[in-house]
Amino acid sequence: MTFEEYKSYFSDIIDKDQDKQVAPYDNPMYYDYTKLNWSRMKRWLKTGKLSSEVLEAVKKINTPQNWIIITEPWCGDASHNVPFMEMIAKENPLISISYELRDSEPNRINEYLTNGGKSIPKLIIRDTEGFDLTTWGPRPEEAQVIYNNLMQNNASFDDVKIEMQNWYNENKGNDLQKEFAELFLKLSN
Using the 8-state DSSP alphabet, how is residue 20 labeled? Predict the structure, then answer.
């Protein structure tokens, strides 16, 4: 799906009454968290700023690329990262981008597990022949270190949500952009 179709899918979930939701959004916790993610995503689309470093790097891409982003509206990491991925891709007309839901066909996530898990968002960058050039995800390296430490210390779900949210709010997409700039430069060499 396109980004507009993904946003429409997301919005349809938010706009639907709780008693008419289907799994997993029929669970009030998922539904409420998805509403929060909608606000986060819209905020980054409105206020997120791309660095000169990532802008220069993405403009150096001189051959067509197909980006596939695997995501879900309920994913907190996706609500913070997907807007920046979309903004970056728009900066180069050689990049086409499509969105897939992790929990729906074609279930491509099964080919791109992170430490054996279906962690999202996951970005797959392919050439025009369909060969993978690289992948990224589910979160910037520093955020992953924080997440891993929280998991090792058996932090509660609420504590994990708060710590990760605080990190994303402070970071403002800077680490993701730095990692993407490095990734693009490696691909162009």
Answer: G
Which amino acid, one-letter code, is at 73? P
- Structure confidence at residue 187 (pLDDT): 85
- How far out from the chain centre does Cα 67 lie? 12
What sign does the CA torsion over 47, 73, 121, 148 have?
A: positive
Q: Is the pLDDT of residue 188 over 80?
A: no
Tokens of 65: 């690329």
The residue written with tokens 């993405």 in the block is 58
Q: In what order do the strands lie in the sheet with 65-71?
A: 95-101, 65-71, 122-126, 132-136
- The answer to whether 134 and 187 are in contact (CB under 8 A) is yes
CA distance 18 to 71: 22
Percentage with pLDDT > 90 across the chain: 94
Phi/psi for 35 (5° steps) reads -60, -45
Looking at the chain, the number of H-run helices and the number of E-run strands are 7, 4
Residue 182: CB atoms within 10 Å = 13
Indicate the SS3 state at residue 70. Answer: strand
pLDDT tens, 139-171?
Answer: 999 999 999 999 999 999 999 999 999 999 999
CA distance 98 to 102: 13
Kindly state the tokens that stand for 101. 């839901």
